[in-house]
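We modelled the chain as a single entity of 842 amino acids. Its sequence is:
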Amino acid sequence: MAYARLAYDPWEIPPEERRATLVGREALLQQLLSAVREQEGHRTIQHYLLLGPRGIGKTTVLLTLRDRVREDPHLSKRWFCVQLREEEYFIRTLRDLLDLTLQALASDENLPEASDLAQRVHDEHDGERSRAIAVDGLRTISKMHDKRILLLIDNFDQVFPRTPTGRRKTRSAQNEYRAFRKLLSGESSIMVIGASVCLFEEIAAYDQAFFNFFCPVDIPNLTDDEICELLRKRAEADANPGFVQNFEEVKDKVRAITYITGGNPRLVLMLYDVLRQREMLPVVQALRETVGSLTPMLKHVLDDMPRQQSKTLDALVRLGGAASPSNISRLARLPLNVVTAQLGRLRDARFVSVEGQGKGKPATYRVSDPMFRTWYQMRYLRPAGRRIELFVEFLRVWFSVEDRRRFLEERWQQFQTCVDGGPHARLAEVSLGIEYFAASLEDQHERRAQFERLADGVFEAGRSQQAARLLAEFATPAAMSEASYEATGYRMLGDRLIDKGDLARAIETYSAALERDPQNVEARICLGLSLGRSGDHSRAKEELDKVISNPALRNGTLSSALLNRAVAEWALGDREGAIADYTAVVELPGAAPGQVATALVGRGLAKQALGNDHGAVFDYTAAVELPEASAKHVALALASRAHAKRVLRDTQGAIGDYTGVAELPGATLEQIAQALLARGVALAQLGRRTDAIRDFERCTELKTDADSVYRAFALQMKAYLTDGGLQEATECISRLHKIEPESAPLEERLEARVRAIISAGREHSLDSASTVLEAAMHHDPDAIREHLAFLQPAIELARTGSEQVIAALPDQERELAKQIAAVLVRKAGQDGTLDPNSEKQP
């Protein structure tokens, strides 16, 4: 954090550097210096108050004014200059303020008598007497040296503390302000130039101590030209020749910086540092520290506001910091006349400025203080609370999309280096850079893909909370607490783990979501479902019981929980319990058609398990005829009814339902493939092998997944061989490498061929097995052929019974050859029928 404190703290910047980088404030400084000179012959002193938002340069102006007074031959003879730090926590009373002034005179102006007086002030326990000693002492010092005291007070509105609640100044604090005014009114030896973000109560209200006492001086925002000059000077001071040389090329983008920062010098320099370093973390830390330190002060400001006024300001910030009264009225849900009145008060207090008003044009109100806007977004708005949108806007306008994508790829390479054993400490910095550049992408799908990739990466690096927060940004916008926001992200993270088949870590992640928000129903349902899939059906049911017992549950969520609990009950052997939950979904008012269809099919399966096949057909039919049911659910119901009809020996009816699935518009390719496979088996049972083979061929052509392709291929081979079609069988295995999915593992490819060759040997003859093997060896790729070579010795072992034929094989292949030979010797019956139990039922 040292970087954050030093980079933007004017007190830590050497005077010569401040002088070299000062931009846009010379006229103001000359005005203040002239005002100081004018006071020399006056008995009544005019005091001044600099007004401007945080980061506008008030502290820098005061420091430079101090330096100029001390450097000026005439002014340095007439004035002692004392500047108090921005946060002087020592000050609680006027006595403290005067004590600190004496200490500053002793240290900064080398006045021993001031040190002695400060000690006397400190040692005197009576407050009134102590303050009198300080006042007399300052007057004496002024007369002794014939110099007046120029007192520079930053954050003048915070000099005397508020109540613990922050609602208003305490009565004692108000008294301190009144005593301070009385002192300044009666003393010509002290001149005060203060600084504040606004005309605070003690100055703005007519019944307060300093009403009309200070001359207000506004510090203006920087113009485009001044921002250009500031950037150029800053680059020269940093010895950054590359930026200076290329500056002309980017001057046209300065207008964007002016718009984003409101001409605020501190924010401008932070954006410059983003350009200079191409790293986000140091600058983000700096701004977080800056706005974090403002929290007590700004929260007090909001606490003091009337509720309608703070609500108006809240709506303006939520609308991006600039909006019309009508838009603010809609978002705040306040009458337009109320909003207009509150905006007027906010403008008078310098919280907002107005643009475009007059001549029939609608006014646009803008938050005057960009730092306040950033603070409010970070503290109260999500997802901006994690990421500073100011920097995202800047990246978007300064860099082209191509540049941002290039920077992203560079950071992804750095990220991988960190993960692969590089400097792990840089992981946070690199991942933050990825996040900001990804957030700046305009394309929503591209942006989401980058965030999901980053979430996966940081999760694998052990940063689960960061991963959850990244994903939570893409949840449905809602007013969420910190806990519910994180819980939503953990639930989404669990969903991603489920998609990857990582059940164990998904369960841990859903549990983490519930630790943060026990009321997150979606996370609990997902946890129950994951526990069920992992085989822990008892815990799954326990979690789903908690969901279903919630009386405030919405129907859609309740039906989802009931469906998942029914699955758990089924797995636990509680068929009656499953039927009860499925029935509850069917009868639930407002349940989605898809959920009702799923429940009807599930209830039908449960009825079948209890022997009620006719009742199952009734439920499947109800699902098929369900209005508004999707094609996917109708296909599921048809396939389920077809299986039930096969059990009831209604093979023709089953074939009709399978045909309905295969010809149903909107059915998935997987459902069509399964229907063709099942219809082929049913057709083969009826002796219609030609039609069955046609269905098996269509199933393989769909290439939906390796399992369906290999099952259809195996059934097709068996159908050919049962009818004596050895040539067709060899042609079938010859083209297998063309129809099997490229993603199929080598083990599955080999198993499909071995089973086909064994089937040829058992259903036909050992010579047929050799013929089929020869066809495979002739057409298959080399990687497969070399693994099939041991099959010919296995066939010879089955033919001759002599193990000499496998003696040359490696140990593992020799054992496999023995097993296959033993299977081949036990030849199946040649009745010419397909055994429906020889393959998995679809």
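As a brief sanity check on the tokenised model: Residues 127-145 form the longest helix (19 residues). The two ends are 64 Å apart (CA to CA).
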